[in-house]
Every structure is written in structure tokens, then in C-alpha cells.
Design the sequence.
């Protein structure tokens, strides 16, 4: 697989991953925008950092109505983020980053602040505007996996970065405004609170491995000998699915070739099952949960999918109990939704 | 103020709070429904309880389309939750409770479970279907405050109950399907994770009192000498507002009469400001954060409002960073939204 580093006109890198070498000359590029300088404030009530990136509200409203900034720009009448005729997987810095290393600090009396250092990248899965993980050739998903691994290995080495999380928001219900298939990578300057708890849990005990028999027999949606996709028995969303290797591995970088193949298949089967279940592109939030370091012998890598649905296709809204108290209320049992989703696995 | 305890046909209590004694004879009652027996499962990844109440999915689809189960039943052609011609504030057990004390336990191998004991109550603010906190007479808000205090004092005494949280979800964006003005009270058998953090924070340090000068000068939306309504400088929602007494008090039960009056006024002014800002009934999640015990000398009572809006009237959707990592990303600064909202205070 090939990786091309193309320096954009704002001196930042656009990465192109592919099965063949990318040699095309660039067409016209987007005008550089101001590099964001976000900051964080400590929320003492929640004991967590909140990041403020107020340039985000200036996200340009682009001229032509059907403008897709993630399509190959050279084919269109206007520049896009990717100034080429074609590409396979493309990754570039988010123009309105919530985390971005810089030296411009702000101080607020009585409120703890910090630069919101780190990185935010956009991962474009395909040059085709209407592709999704469900329809892509399997090779493309393997290429995406390869690109994620590249980003893990590179970003985790950088100072200012303590945790890397690739994720995808899919569907308007999950806040997506650009329909071109893409995800994001957030490289945080701290371990995010959700992950901190998970790291601590895995340090005590590999609850995933301990549960593996139960998952394989009762909660699975799809599995082969390397990988399982299952509704966890303690799911917080009705149709929550986790995809995990059957042996303990810190992150996708530790997969062998067979596991990579299994993982790509499982990933596609899960998205296809969601779409078949919903009878349309199913909305979800999907995130990779890997260890905070390349060498970690406790953490068990997995992907979590949260479709914002409760019983059947009714939306689950996180209201009083969930948002205000942090207590999830579920209408359906994971063992039931596992059966429902299993029927949609092809 | 008066409180009537009316035993319903399911042997559970409907409470009626009013400035005059409620003596009306009941009209026809709703058929009793099965008393729910929810259970909890421990989510090891998040280190939190998830509650499963699978009878919730059977929530009756009531016959007439315009049926409001929270209206006074005696005026209608069908029974409702409140079998009277009129009432002021009414509270009754939620038929599809997420927490409900019972003795029927379930066990799951490899997954920690517990009965989802506790109580869930529905609080109806008015007999008028179209009322809201913005329009009610101030006396009604004081009566509501009185009813909340009654529930705190009574529920906190019960075994199985460790924390009491009254809250309100307002607007369809927050999952509301019944438009009749109402809130809920969740009485949890454990301290909810969000509150646990807050209790620990206040034990270390009263961050609200420490911040009070800043709030009074820069972040306030409304205040008088007893009460302040402000956008906290570490807000997670653009238009988040906290209402808090200016002195440390564990809960609304510790208010003196003047503070009660101030609080009711502040509460109404905040909801009115939201509605004026939005130009319509503004959606929000609102919750009372009081101490876990009546006598607590650390916790600082306050109400939090989370309107699901980001910059201007665009919805803020909790996606990858918020849901998956627990990290909130903000487009606007609290000091700016405080100024915006202050202009709408009447």
C-alpha cells in the first residue's frame, strides 16, 4: 500500500493512501483558512475538560448549493479539500479543529484553562460521494484500516497527544451535514474520561475476554474464528454493537493479516445489517477504542457502534436521566436486539 | 399549602398539592397496569449501572388521538392519570418506571445485576394543557417548589433510595411526546455518576461560591440579592444556565421564604428568556442538583438547564467526541451567550 504526503497551500499535510501510487499533479486548492487556536476549560462539576473552538461558528457557507468539500476537486468547477481527479482514502487536518497544538494561551481568573492542543483530522473513505462502508469493496475497508493504523502509529508518537480516537458520525440524526463517506480522528492532549474508565476497567480485569463465551453463544450478531460482533449484555443503546478480536490486542496495529481480513468483513457485515434492519442508511456513532499506547498488555481493542434508536425504529433521546444524571434507561434487552440484528446479517 | 394523598385503584398514591384543600370525589380511573420490575446491569466499560425496564416498550398507545393522560380526567370522555375536574400540582408514580422497588431479582452469569429499586414519579405542573413555567402565576411555581421539597424530604427517608432528582424534559427535541406541562422525579438506589463527581467536587471546594463574583459580574443572566442565574464559564451547552442561591445551601428545603420567592422569579425569568430568545417554546433538559442528604454542609444546590442548541438556533448533537469519548466541543464562549441571553430577560 502507498502513502503520499502532499503539502497543501496552508503548509499542512494531505495524506493519500492507496493500492497504487498517487502521482497526480494538484489542481486549484481551497484558500487557506485561519489555523484554529482552541482552548479548554475545566468543568469542576463534571471533573472534565470542555474544549472551546469559537472559530468553528465561522465554518464557511460555501457558494454552490451542492458543493461537497470532500469530493475530488479536479472534477468540479470549484476547489475542494482534495485537489485531485481521484483518490482512494484521503486524510487531512480539520479546518475547524477542536484540538490543535499551538502556543497561544488564554487565562481566566477562577477557571482553570489550557491550550486545546492535539490534532483533528478528517478521513475520507472514498472518492465516490455515494459510497458507504456497506457498499465499498472489502479492499477499501482494509485500506481504511491501514490508514487508521498509520495515524495511530504516527499520532501516538507526538508530544501533546495522549489518546487517539478515530470515529464516524453517520446520518443527519448524528449531526452529519456532509454525506460524502467520511470519519474523523481526534488526537486528544489527555485521556478522555470515557476511555480513562475503560483503561482502568481493563487493568483490573479483561471483562471482554471473560465474557467471550457468553458473547459467542448468546449475544453475537456475527463472528468467525478471529473476530466477534455482539450486542454487549450491558448495552446503553438498544442496537449497540461491539466488534472485537477474540484474543486480547491493544489496537488494530497488532492484527495479523487474517485478523485484518476478518475485521474488515465483520465491519461491513455490521453496517449492512444495520441498513437492512432500518431499510435505509442507518444512523450511528462509531468509534475505535484502542489502548493509549502501542504497547499495552491490558486493553482489549474494540469498535463501538451506537445507533440512536430504541425499541424498533423510535429514536432514543438522551434526556433527563442520561444527560443530567449519567444513568441510561433501556426499553429492550440486549439478548433480544442481538437476535433481531442477527437476522439481518448477510 | 395543602397535600392530599389519594389512593388509586392500583393501591399507589396520587398526591395533590394546592393552596386550597382538594376534596373532590374521584371520577372513573384508568385501568391499573402491571407494576414494573426493572433491573440494572453493570456496564464495566463505563463503570456505571444501566437500567432495563422492558415493560416500557409496551407503553399503551391510547385510543383517542388527542388523548392527554395528564389532563383532569373528569372533564373528558375517558379516564386519565388524574380522575378529577381540577387540581393545582399533581404527582403520581410513573406507570413505566425505570426504578421501582420490588423483590424479583434476575441473575446473569458473568454480568453483575441488581434490582432497579427506587421510585419514578410524574409531576404535573398545572391542570391547563397549554401552561408552561413561563406563563404560570408565580404562586404556582412556588407551589411546585413546595411539592419538590415534599418529595425530597419524603423520598430521601426511604430505604432503597440514595439520591433524588427532579427534572423536566421540554420540547420534542428532548424526547417529549406529552405537551402537558410536567416533569419527573427519579429516586435512584445509588448516587448517579454525574452527581457523584459533583459531590466529590463540592467536598474539596465550593467552586460555585468561589466563582460567585465572576458570575455576578460577567456570566449572570439574571440576579437579585438571594439568587443568581448564570451561564457557567465552563458550560457544556451554548445556552446552559445554572440557577443557584448566593449562599451555600444543600437543597431547596433549606430556602427561607425570601429565597423561595427569589428562586421562583428567577426560574420563570430564565424560561421566559429562553422562549424570547428562540421566538418559540425553547426545548431544554432541566434538573435539580441537590445534596444526597437533607443535612449536608458541602453541596451547593443549583438547577441546571441544557437547551440542545449550539451557535444561534442550530442544534448541538452529542456525537463522536461527546458520546464516545466524553469530551464536549463548544462553538461559542459562555461569556458571549450570557450577554445574548441577558438581553432577553424581562
Sequence:
Amino acid at each position: 500500500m502507498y502513502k503520499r504526503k502532499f503539502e497543501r497551500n496552508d503548509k499542512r499535510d494531505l495524506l493519500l493512501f492507496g493500492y497504487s501510487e498517487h502521482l497526480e499533479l494538484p489542481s486549484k486548492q481551497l484558500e487557506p483558512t485561519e489555523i484554529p487556536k482552541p482552548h479548554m476549560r475545566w468543568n469542576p462539576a463534571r471533573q472534565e475538560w470542555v474544549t472551546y473552538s469559537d472559530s468553528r461558528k465561522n465554518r464557511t457557507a460555501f457558494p454552490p448549493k451542492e458543493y461537497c468539500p470532500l469530493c475530488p476537486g479536479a472534477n468540479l468547477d470549484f476547489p475542494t479539500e482534495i485537489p485531485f481527479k481521484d483518490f482512494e482514502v484521503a486524510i487531512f487536518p480539520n479546518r475547524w479543529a477542536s484540538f490543535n497544538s499551538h502556543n497561544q494561551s488564554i487565562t481566566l481568573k477562577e477557571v482553570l484553562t489550557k491550550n486545546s492542543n492535539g490534532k483533528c483530522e478528517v478521513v475520507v473513505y472514498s472518492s465516490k460521494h455515494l459510497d458507504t462502508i456497506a457498499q465499498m469493496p472489502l479492499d477499501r475497508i482494509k485500506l481504511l484500516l491501514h490508514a487508521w493504523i498509520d495515524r495511530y502509529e504516527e499520532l501516538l508518537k507526538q508530544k501533546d497527544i495522549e489518546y487517539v480516537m478515530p470515529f464516524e458520525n453517520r446520518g443527519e440524526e448524528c449531526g452529519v451535514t456532509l454525506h460524502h463517506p467520511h470519519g474523523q480522528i481526534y488526537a486528544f492532549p489527555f485521556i478522555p474520561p470515557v476511555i480513562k474508565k475503560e483503561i482502568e476497567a481493563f487493568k483490573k480485569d479483561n471483562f471482554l475476554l471473560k465474557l467471550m463465551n457468553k458473547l459467542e453463544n448468546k449475544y453475537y450478531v456475527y463472528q468467525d474464528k478471529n473476530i466477534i460482533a455482539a450486542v454487549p449484555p450491558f448495552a446503553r443503546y438498544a442496537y449497540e454493537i461491539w466488534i472485537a478480536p477474540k484474543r486480547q490486542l491493544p489496537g488494530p496495529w497488532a492484527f495479523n493479516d487474517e485478523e485484518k481480513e476478518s475485521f474488515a468483513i465483520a465491519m461491513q457485515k455490521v453496517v449492512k445489517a444495520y441498513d437492512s434492519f432500518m431499510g435505509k442508511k442507518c444512523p450511528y456513532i462509531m468509534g475505535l477504542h484502542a489502548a493509549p499506547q502501542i504497547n499495552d498488555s491490558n486493553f482489549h481493542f474494540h469498535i463501538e457502534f451506537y445507533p440512536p434508536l430504541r425499541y424498533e425504529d423510535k429514536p432514543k433521546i438522551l434526556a433527563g436521566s442520561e444527560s443530567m444524571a449519567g444513568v441510561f434507561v433501556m426499553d429492550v434487552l440486549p439478548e433480544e436486539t442481538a437476535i433481531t440484528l442477527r437476522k439481518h446479517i448477510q
